[in-house]
């Protein structure tokens, strides 16, 4: 069927901020959908609250709304734009939920909007457990038995006569939030209770467990003619009981016979038909009993998912793009396969390699969280690797994760050394955790058998035996002479040069040189959807130690861009945005762009983003091999975050040209001593600081500059292990802990500036002139990590003189560092004093935010500057003055980590960001809070409890709140202080003071807003419980005084007038067109 | 591990390691793109005369079980894989791939760049080759390959067909969870002309309830008709369809006498019997992901394919034959039916084994054809 002509305007709902369970994959799907629909001539309206995405670039959709993703706001957009159709399947669970609510409330009917892709009925059938179970039974498929309960009593009643364990899943939460596995009645009671609290509707599902069964997923596509194809099968390395997002997964399925696979395929097709997903992709999960083969359906996602992104990258089949085309009426046989060009998309990809996806966890960011894995997803990112065998793919995936490991082990980083304690190993194998795969290796080294490891882990023996082969190879490398044959074999098992060097007592460089001498280098193979059966035109490559290399190096001028690797706290989608922008920019300039990255969720790993895609780990060895092969004119390291930046010097030393700011100059900004010299030279202030190599040294420095001090290890991103230390005792404790983090690097000690305003400045320089991209004033005071604080562009409280001075200092520093490309500077302002906190001669986290706020595509311009264009040629010589305000707010994963306190500090903890944009600060801030899920209340009760140092500052806040009609309640100390200041507020008990206390109020829904500045951190404090309860019950909580002021402004704005929506295209006064910036 | 060589007639060779049986073996080298189903591939009689390489690099993972076989033996001349699994992991597995090939005396080679081999075949076409674990002299091996018989003009059916007729009684197995078992057509009798029939064809017919008689490929039309069948199924089989005029001749006699259903080689027999010609494809279709459109409904099914030869559309008598199925990858003929006589045939494998079940509906069409024939009588 040809595409539909009766619809012209289509609304796409995005997935909002990056959170655990919803990451870049929906930027990938949304961007593909926008592109595909625009190409087909439709007018695309996009709404997403996340400014860091590529899809919200003004060119991607016709109208881009960066507005809060709430049903009310989306309805306003519908009323304003009157789209003919809405595609709800591209924005993850968030997009789907909003569409479901709007459908249920009749909004789509009212405005004559048709849901395409998945109808409301299909969404319900897939999402509502009762309906789903019924549908499955109707088509003869088994599902684990389950029941919805609303109380612990109901749960206990239902489990009578059934066997433990049970899985508890709260209704309407994302990625298993608040769920878990109950092995006994006590755990059942606790989990059901918690689940009921977490669920938006006070309901949990209690389900018979299929723990330990083999877990599989199939990616299915269907079109309006009812053609159904399976794009990819995925087998989970980890058995049932661990969230798929937290499982190591492998494509294709490895241990199913054809009979079993076809049975699953038939079932998947039956499921998509029965649920009634009309077009597009769905993901269906199965569990298979390892000893009987019994198969049950676990769940279905009637939309593009994280697994679809993985399946797309694993096979080369662009699921989201085709899903968009199917939604507008095309059938699979009408869409050509991009890769082969000659064959249609209506087929099932077949692959001739093995794909391994590894999750990345950042538990060290949340020391109080339980670091075990359950049905609740906890990972913050993932890496994918491709190899010609599982061993190779697994080891590549591990080094792609950038957790410092260069393979499964034997890389000099093993925390466990012989003699091994079998009990420790058994415990680590039994209870799933982030390091389990490494403990399988220890288990083999300690002499454990595959049978025993299987009994403890239920990981299929096929995977275990493959790991055993890696361990045996390790022994062989250690014990035998390193002949070319052995070296080649070791490489084909995925061993990195670092591992081999470690086993042989040599350096990485020596091994590399030995390899190069023997001609042992990786061959690059193509990902082509067809296992070589047809000629492929899409240059998407992976390395393997094989006979034939398929890459034909062109004679065009090439630029290599290094991506950011897996998402993590501190480095995420913002950097992918920058890399993608650069790829677009350099292709415009006629370069052949080579992208290197290993994150399957991203747009940068789409094969049509660049001219060539190498899906490879971002280590020196892997990057250098590609550079040796392709011989690019230069490589761009400043856009992918810290990952590529860390490689800059080494690449330069190996003779690779690093484009943009010179690595030596980058080093001047990163090395504290050189940095201080630089500031001295320019006559700029920095906070007193010192570098301590021992506790004694550190103590002396702290004494000299005076407490409080900010301490951190050198060379870290996202404020890892950074802390504000108020006395010597805490300093001692910190150093003991920090030495674990990094023994090679010293401790940096800075004077901590109390109550200072922090400002971020992003700028671009071409070596001649420096133009400011944006000045962002933080809401929270200095000391809160810049990635975690809200900020406003333009500044909302700074004087014009200060802002001008900040710009002048930025220009001076950029000039001195001979910046070519982007620079980000963090300042702190205390009174009239300006301190330079940090200089980053690279793309910062705020580059996409600045782009969305002002319309200036900084990363795109930076890429062009790096290849020699001047800013004048690019039409960007003057800063853009905006008349509106944009506020960025951070989004946190605290709900996932019970036991973790939600206080902000110098160590970054947020996973994502949202933006609110409007004509003034109050409205923009209010929108940012709404978008972040902390919707400010317009009436009700505010609970105030602040530390003594903040008591004075809180008075005007409380006064204002009372004026605005709020009731204010406070604990004793705060209440008395307020009383002295002439404000009467109601008293509420602290927890220790008897009931009803403040937590009772929270639980009963009697509090709408909490202002609580911390006295202390952690479970020993009463206020910690208040903060946790607020998180669970989704009550907005403000933990800083500036935050409270901003909130009051926001509430005032909301009370003054109703929220209005406006597209970015209407806000922006500049546009990037025909390769340069145009002023409108 | 013993060394092994894979050598093609054009001089292309790869060095690897031996597994399965040792020795030297010759055949046409083809690649199969199925991700699963190596056991079915090994036991498919259509692979007689061929050395098969699997494009998926990890083979043997789930071992071998006694049930998932498509015939009474292993027929491939040799087996080429990137990495054979040392361990067999599946609850139904009873032996490893290595043991299985040894038991059947089939020579295997692993540790070779199967993708390079596949690309070479795609570009140069399927050609003769050998695997040797006993001779390391490439020049000599090339010479031996050149002297070995190819597929063109060769009757391999006689090497795989049963020598005596027999009745087949085994339906599809419950544990395979096949969704289309009816079992009520016990009044229908099907004679299957065995050119190298896959068991799944027989199992499916039996699952419908039919009485299934398997007869040797050299049976005459009158011998077939003497069973008084309600339909005759012309099975799949190996080798060059143009090399067995004696079968085509008998098939021609069956046209109009009894409902006919041709599968793969059987389709080629029928095509020739109707006046068409076959030609050799460059590297054939061997895999489980080929899209075929049913031209009558315009719907697409994902099919199992295994053929090196094809019926030429241009040579078929236009007035008599209707094209029903077409391959969307290369637009070659995948199915036909007669405008007057009750017969139809498919180039691909509706019985799957291995592969998807999308095309199972065609067995129903055969049942329907037989029912109509019965009513007509």
Characterize this entry briefly.
The complex is a heterodimer of chains A (1080) and B (377). Chain A is built from 37 helices and 40 strands.
Keywords:
heterodimer, A: 1080 residues, alpha/beta, 20% strand, B: 377 residues, Glucose Oxidase, domain 1, Rossmann fold, ten-stranded mixed beta sheet, 10 helices, 19 strands
Task: Give the overall shape of chain B.
Answer: globular
What is the makeup of the main sheet of chain B? 10 strands, mixed
Over the alpha carbons, how many angstroms does the gyration radius of chain A reach? 28 Å
User: pLDDT below 50 for ≥5 consecutive residues: which ranges of chain B?
Assistant: none
Strand order of the largest sheet of chain A: 14-13-10-11-12-15-16
Strand content of chain A: 15-25%
Largest interface, C-beta closer than 8 angstroms, per-chain residues:
A-B, 60 and 56 residues
Oligomeric status: heterodimer
Average per-residue pLDDT of chain B, rounded, comes to 95
Number of domains of chain B: 2
**Helix content class of chain B:** 10-25%
General description of the model:
The complex is a heterodimer of chains A (1080) and B (377). With 1080 residues, chain A is an alpha/beta fold. In chain A, helix 1 packs across helix 11 (319-327), helix 15 crosses helix 16 (461-479) and helix 32 (951-963) packs parallel to helix 36 (1041-1056). The longest helix of chain A is centred in the middle third of the chain and has 19 residues, at 461-479. Chain A is globular, with a radius of gyration of 28 Å. Chain B is globular. In chain B, the strands form three sheets. In chain B, strands 10-12-11-13-14-19-18-17-15-16 form a ten-stranded mixed beta sheet, with helices on both faces. Chain B has a seven-stranded mixed barrel with strand order 1-2-8-6-4-3-9. Chain B has a two-stranded parallel ribbon with strand order 5-7. The longest helix of chain B has 16 residues, at 361-376. Chains A and B meet through helix 9 and helix 16 of A and helix 3, strand 15 and strand 16 of B.
């Amino acid at each position: 069927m040809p595409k539909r002509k009766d619809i012209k305007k289509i609304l796409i709902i995005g997935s909002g901020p990056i959170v655990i369970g919803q990451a870049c994959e929906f930027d990938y799907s949304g961007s593909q959908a926008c592109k595909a629909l625009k190409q087909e001539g439709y007018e695309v309206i996009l709404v997403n609250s996340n400014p860091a995405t590529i899809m919200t670039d003004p060119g991607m959709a016709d109208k881009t709304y960066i507005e809060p993703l709430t049903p009310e706001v989306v309805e306003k957009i519908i009323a304003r734009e009157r789209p003919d159709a809405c595609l709800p399947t591209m924005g993850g669970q968030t997009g789907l939920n909003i569409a479901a609510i709007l459908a249920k409330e009749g909004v789509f009917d009212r405005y004559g909007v048709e849901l395409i892709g998945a109808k409301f009925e299909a969404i319900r059938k897939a999402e509502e457990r009762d309906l789903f179970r019924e549908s499955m039974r109707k088509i003869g498929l088994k599902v684990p038995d389950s029941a919805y309960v609303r109380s612990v009593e109901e749960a206990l009643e239902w489990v009578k006569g059934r066997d433990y364990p049970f899985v508890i899943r709260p209704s309407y939460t994302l990625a298993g939030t608040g769920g878990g596995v109950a092995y006994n009645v006590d755990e059942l009671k606790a989990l059901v209770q918690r689940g009921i609290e977490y669920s938006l509707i006070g309901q949990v599902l209690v389900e018979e467990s299929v723990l330990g069964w083999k877990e599989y997923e199939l990616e299915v596509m269907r079109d309006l003619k009812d053609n159904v194809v399976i794009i990819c099968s995925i087998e989970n390395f980890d058995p049932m009981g661990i969230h798929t997002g937290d499982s190591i997964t492998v494509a294709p399925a490895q241990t199913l016979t054809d009979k079993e696979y076809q049975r699953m395929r038939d079932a998947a097709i039956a499921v998509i038909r029965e649920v009634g997903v009309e077009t597009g992709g769905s993901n269906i999960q199965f569990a298979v009993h390892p000893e009987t083969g019994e198969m049950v359906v676990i769940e279905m996602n009637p939309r593009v998912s994280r697994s679809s992104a993985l399946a797309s990258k694993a096979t080369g089949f662009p699921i989201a793009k085709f899903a968009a085309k199917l939604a507008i009426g095309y059938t699979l046989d009408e869409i050509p396969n991009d890769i082969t060009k000659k064959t249609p998309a209506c087929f099932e990809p077949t692959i001739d390699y093995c794909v391994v996806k590894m999750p990345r966890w950042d538990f060290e960011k949340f020391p109080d969280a339980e670091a075990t894995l359950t049905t609740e997803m906890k990972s913050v990112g993932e890496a994918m690797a491709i190899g010609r065998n599982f061993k190779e793919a697994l080891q590549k995936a591990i080094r792609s994760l950038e957790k410092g490991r260069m393979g499964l082990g034997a890389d000099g980083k093993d925390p466990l050394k012989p003699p091994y304690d079998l009990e420790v190993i058994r415990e680590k194998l039994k209870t799933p955790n982030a390091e389990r795969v490494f403990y399988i290796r220890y288990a083999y080294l300690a002499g454990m058998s595959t049978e025993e490891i299987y009994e403890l882990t239920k990981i299929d023996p096929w995977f275990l035996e493959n790991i055993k082969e890696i361990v045996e190879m390790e022994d062989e490398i250690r014990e035998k002479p390193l002949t070319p044959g052995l070296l080649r074999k070791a490489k084909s098992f995925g061993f990195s040069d670092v591992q081999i060097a470690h086993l042989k007592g040599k350096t990485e460089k020596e091994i590399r040189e030995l390899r190069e001498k023997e001609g042992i280098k990786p061959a690059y193979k193509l990902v082509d959807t067809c296992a070589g059966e047809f000629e492929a035109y899409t240059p998407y490559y992976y390395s393997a130690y094989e006979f034939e290399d398929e890459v034909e190096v062109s004679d065009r001028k090439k630029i290599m861009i290094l991506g950011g690797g897996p998402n993590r706290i501190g480095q995420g989608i913002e950097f992918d945005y920058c890399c993608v922008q650069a790829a677009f920019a350099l292709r415009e300039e006629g370069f052949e762009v080579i992208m290197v990255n290993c994150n399957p969720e991203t747009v940068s790993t789409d094969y049509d983003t660049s001219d060539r895609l190498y899906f490879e780990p971002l280590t020196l060895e892997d990057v250098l091999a590609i550079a040796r092969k392709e011989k690019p004119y230069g490589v761009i390291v400043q856009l992918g975050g810290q990952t590529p930046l860390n490689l800059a010097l080494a690449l330069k030393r190996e003779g690779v040209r690093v484009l943009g700011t010179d690595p030596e100059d980058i080093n001047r900004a990163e090395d504290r001593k050189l940095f201080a010299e630089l500031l001295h030279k320019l006559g700029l202030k920095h906070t007193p600081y010192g570098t301590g190599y021992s506790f004694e040294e550190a103590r002396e420095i702290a004494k000299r500059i005076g407490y409080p001090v900010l301490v951190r290890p050198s060379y870290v991103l996202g404020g890892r292990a950074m802390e504000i230390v108020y006395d010597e005792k805490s300093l001692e404790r910190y150093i003991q802990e920090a030495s674990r983090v990094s023994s090679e690097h010293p401790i940096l000690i800075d004077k901590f500036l109390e109550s200072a305003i922090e400002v971020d400045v992003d700028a671009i320089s071409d070596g001649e002139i420096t133009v400011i991209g944006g000045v962002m004033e933080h809401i929270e005071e200095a000391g809160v990590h810049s990635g975690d604080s809200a900020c406003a562009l333009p500044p909302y409280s700074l004087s014009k003189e200060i802002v001008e001075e900040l710009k002048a200092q930025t220009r001076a520093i950029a000039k001195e560092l001979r910046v070519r490309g982007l620079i980000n500077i963090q300042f702190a302002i205390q009174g009239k004093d300006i301190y330079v906190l940090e200089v980053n001669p690279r793309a910062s986290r705020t580059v996409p935010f600045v782009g969305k706020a002002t319309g200036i595509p900084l990363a795109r311009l930076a890429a062009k500057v790096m290849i020699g264009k001047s800013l004048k040629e690019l039409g960007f010589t003057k800063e853009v003055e905006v008349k509106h305000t944009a506020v960025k707010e951070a989004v946190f994963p605290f709900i996932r980590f019970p036991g973790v306190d939600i206080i902000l500090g110098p160590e970054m903890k947020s996973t994502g960001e949202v933006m609110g944009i409007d004509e003034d600060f109050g409205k923009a801030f209010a929108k940012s809070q709404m978008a972040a899920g902390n919707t400010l209340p317009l009436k009700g009760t505010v609970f105030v409890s602040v530390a003594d140092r903040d008591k004075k500052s809180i008075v005007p806040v409380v006064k204002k709140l009372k004026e605005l009609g709020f009731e204010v309640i406070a604990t004793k100390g705060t209440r008395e202080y307020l009383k002295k200041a002439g404000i009467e507020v109601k008293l509420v008990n602290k927890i220790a003071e008897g009931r009803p206390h403040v937590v009772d109020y929270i639980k009963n829904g009697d509090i709408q807003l909490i202002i609580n500045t911390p006295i202390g951190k952690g479970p020993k404090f009463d206020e910690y419980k208040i903060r946790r309860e607020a998180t669970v019950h989704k009550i907005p909580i403000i933990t800083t005084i500036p935050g409270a002021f901003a909130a009051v402004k926001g509430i005032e704005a909301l009370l003054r007038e109703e929220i209005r929506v406006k597209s970015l295209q209407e806000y922006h006064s500049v546009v990037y067109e025909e390769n340069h910036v145009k002023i409108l | 591990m013993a060394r092994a060589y894979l050598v093609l007639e054009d001089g292309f060779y790869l060095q690897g390691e031996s597994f399965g049986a040792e020795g030297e073996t010759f055949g046409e080298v083809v690649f199969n793109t199925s991700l699963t189903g190596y056991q079915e591939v090994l036991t498919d009689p259509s692979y007689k005369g061929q050395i098969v390489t699997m494009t998926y690099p990890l083979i043997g993972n789930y071992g071998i079980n006694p049930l998932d076989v498509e015939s009474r033996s292993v027929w491939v001349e040799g087996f080429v894989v990137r990495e054979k699994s040392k361990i067999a992991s599946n609850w139904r597995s009873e032996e490893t791939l290595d043991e299985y090939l040894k038991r059947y005396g089939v020579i295997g080679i692993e540790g070779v760049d199967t993708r390079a081999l596949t690309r070479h075949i795609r570009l140069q076409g399927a050609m003769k080759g050998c695997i040797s674990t006993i001779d390391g002299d490439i020049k000599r091996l090339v010479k031996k390959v050149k002297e070995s018989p190819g597929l063109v003009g060769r009757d391999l059916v006689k090497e795989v067909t049963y020598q005596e007729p027999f009745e087949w009684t085994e339906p599809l197995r419950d544990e395979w969870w096949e969704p289309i078992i009816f079992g009520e057509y016990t009044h229908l009798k099907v004679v299957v002309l065995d050119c190298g029939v896959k068991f799944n064809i027989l199992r499916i017919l039996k699952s419908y309830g039919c009485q299934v008689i398997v007869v040797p490929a050299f049976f005459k039309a009158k011998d077939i008709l003497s069973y008084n069948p309600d339909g005759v199924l012309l099975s799949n089989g190996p080798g060059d369809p143009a090399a067995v005029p004696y079968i085509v001749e008998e098939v021609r006699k069956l046209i109009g006498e009894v409902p006919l259903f041709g599968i793969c080689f059987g389709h080629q027999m029928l095509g020739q019997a109707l006046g068409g010609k076959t030609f050799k494809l460059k590297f054939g279709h061997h895999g489980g992901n080929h899209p075929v459109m049913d031209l009558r409904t315009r719907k697409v099914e994902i099919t199992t394919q295994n053929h090196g030869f094809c019926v030429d559309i241009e040579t078929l008598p236009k007035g008599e034959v209707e094209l029903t199925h077409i391959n969307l990858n290369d637009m070659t003929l995948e199915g036909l039916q007669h405008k007057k006589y009750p017969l139809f045939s498919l180039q691909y494998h509706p019985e799957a084994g291995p592969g998807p079940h999308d095309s199972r509906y065609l067995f129903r069409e055969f049942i329907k054809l037989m029912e109509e024939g019965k009513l007509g009588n």
